[in-house]
Specification:
With 90 residues, this protein is α+β, with helices and mostly antiparallel strands. It has helices spanning 3-17, 22-29, 33-46, 82-88, and strands spanning 19-21, 50-53, 57-60. The protein has a domain at 3-64: Arc Repressor Mutant, subunit A.
Length: 90
C-alpha cells in the first residue's frame, strides 16, 4: 500500500473513531517508527485534521469535508465546489 493510501485510510479511521493512539496506527498499518513519524506530520501539520494529546493520541479536529475522500468528483453539494462544479456538470 502506498503512503497516500495509508494517509487516506488513517484519516477515515480517525474520523470514525474520534481518537486513536499512535501505537494502534502503527499496528494497523505495519508502520516503522520513521513511517509513523511521517504519518503524524502529515495528519497534524499538512492535513491539519488532528491534534496531539500527550504525545500518545491523535484526536480528530477536522470536519467531514476536510479530506479529499469526503466528496466525490462531480458532487456539487459541497459549499467549496458551487460555481466550479456547477459549470463542470453542465
Amino acid at each position: 500500500m502506498d503512503f497516500v493510501a495509508v494517509v487516506d485510510q488513517a484519516i477515515a479511521l480517525l474520523r470514525q473513531r474520534g481518537r486513536i493512539t499512535y501505537g494502534a496506527l502503527q499496528l494497523q498499518y505495519g508502520l516503522t517508527e520513521a513511517q509513523l513519524a511521517v504519518l503524524k506530520d502529515e495528519l497534524l501539520h499538512a492535513q491539519q485534521v488532528a491534534r496531539d494529546e500527550e504525545g500518545r493520541v491523535l484526536v480528530w479536529t477536522g470536519d467531514t469535508a476536510s479530506s479529499p475522500s469526503a466528496s466525490t468528483p462531480g458532487d456539487t453539494s459541497s459549499p467549496h465546489c458551487h460555481s466550479t462544479c456547477s459549470s463542470l456538470s453542465s
